[in-house]
TrEMBL record:
CDD domains (UniProt xref): AdoMet_MTases
Biological processes per GO annotation: methylation
Organism of provenance: Acetobacter oryzifermentans
Keywords (A to Z) from UniProt: Methyltransferase, Transferase
Region (Disordered): 1-30
A single GO molecular function term of this UniProt record: methyltransferase activity
Listed Pfam families: Methyltransf_12
Residue stretches making up the Methyltransferase type domain: 65-163
UniProt protein name: Methyltransferase
Length: 419
């Protein structure tokens, strides 16, 4: 018998972690009272950011959730498809049998008939012989793998023509304090020890963590506070955990022949939103968007993750013109009447980019237009509805152009694909 290499021991430690503490902690019975919503893999986001609101809803969607864990993204997507009566299948792959069993129990509670579960490693997808997928979700997985580049290239091979992915990776600055604590705990309780021993040591450290520790100062995440044993372990004891700046993330995508169709939310990566100085804004706006995104990350300092929808290079599908009066706008999640209520007297919408709240200006008339957006009315129907209020077609066009562009960048108002 040969000794395991350091890489192998970390991998076996990672496997042991997710069997002992499936992440995130979920109770299948909770599915009877709530649906967890997030990004990526929200169906309306996939329709818009991956397929440009041009892929017919009647066309079956074949989706892979690569490393599904306890199932948050998979359950959300399968539920959205089933509720909308849309054809498709969500295939969930994870190497942890314990995590899969929890995801499967959640699906059973919801009586989802469009989802199936396969135990296996996403690094060995070829051996599973699953074919090609229109959409692939890989959320919070790549940064734990021994070779993220090879894993992403493997996923790209299983992407059908015209398809796309929803990805999430960790970002360094918003996780300030995490890696310091990880380094300390690796010295106190090396990854070669049992998960139970390591967790006990982490709990003991957290009880008396100095007030000066950066982990105490950082409010950009809360797994160690409210995520139970699984959350604490995943944040502070994960044996393999790397983070990507947005520049590194874009390079990572590029090596796999991919590019983002959307960094989520797009406005988060616009530093001019929190830098009001006109000369600064003018200078920043002249830079390539990649540099603008890097500046936003550098200065905001609170991005703990990067979430993106990605497609093959050169394959991004441009959504329909929102000024086309036959286009149908749709609220991503928050009803228009509720979003309108959030507008302040000065016609700004307070928007939280994590722990940073930025006032986003909107045309005053959007307060009356937002409640009319129901996913059925066309842009032309909206114009007709507000005409009796004294808003001419020309005025509506100006208001709608500014309002839609702003709210699209906040991922609040999108366009609906054709039936």
């Amino acid at each position: 018998m040969t000794d395991q290499s350091p890489a192998d021991t970390r991998d076996s430690s990672l496997a042991a972690q997710y069997e002992a503490y499936p992440y995130p902690e979920r109770n299948p019975q909770d599915e009877a009272k709530r649906l967890l919503i997030g990004s990526p893999s929200h169906l309306r986001e996939i329709d818009y950011w991956v397929f440009g609101a041009k892929r017919a809803q009647s066309q079956p969607l074949r989706a892979l959730v690569a490393g599904c864990g306890t199932g948050d993204g998979a359950i959300m997507l399968a539920t959205h498809l089933q509720r909308a009566g849309r054809p498709g299948e969500v295939v969930c792959v994870d190497r942890s049998q314990k995590a899969l069993s929890i995801a499967q129990a959640r699906a059973q509670t919801r009586e989802l008939a469009n989802i199936r579960f396969i135990q296996g490693s996403l690094t060995e997808l070829d051996a599973l012989d699953l074919g090609l997928f229109d959409y692939i979700d890989c959320c919070g997985v790549l940064h734990h793998l021994p070779d993220p580049d090879a894993a992403l290239a493997m996923l790209e091979k299983h992407l059908a023509p015209g398809g796309g992915m929803g990805l999430m990776v960790y970002a360094p600055y918003g996780r300030t304090g995490v890696y310091m604590a990880q380094d300390a705990l690796e010295k106190i309780a090396p990854h070669s020890e049992s998960p139970q021993t390591r967790l006990d040591m982490a709990r003991r450290v957290m009880r008396t963590l100095p007030a000066t520790a950066w982990l105490r100062q950082n409010g950009n995440f809360g797994d160690h506070l409210s995520g139970g044993d699984a959350g604490l372990y995943d944040l502070l004891l994960n044996p393999r955990d790397r983070a990507y700046t947005v520049t590194e993330f874009l390079d990572f995508l590029g090596k796999a022949g991919l590019e983002p169709s959307c960094l989520m939310e797009p406005a988060r990566y616009d530093p001019t939103l929190f830098l009001p100085d006109p000369r600064l804004r003018a200078r920043i706006s002249s830079l390539p968007w990649q540099q603008q995104a890097a500046i936003a990350e550098d200065l905001a300092g609170n991005m703990p993750t990067h979430v993106a929808y990605v497609v093959r290079k050169g394959a991004r599908i441009t959504p329909p013109d929102p000024m086309d009066f036959s286009a149908v706008p749709i609220m991503r999640e928050i009803p228009g009447v509720e979003l309108a209520k959030q507008m302040q007297p000065d016609h700004t919408l307070p928007f939280a980019f994590g722990t940073l709240v930025v006032p986003i200006p909107l045309p005053p008339q959007m307060r009356g237009i937002l409640p009319l957006i129901d996913g059925e009315r066309t842009v032309g129907a909206l114009a007709e509805a507000v005409a009796p209020r004294g808003i001419s077609e020309n005025k509506f066009r100006k208001v709608w152009a500014e309002g839609f562009t702003t709210l699209e960048r906040l991922n609040r108002v999108l366009l609906r694909p054709p039936a």
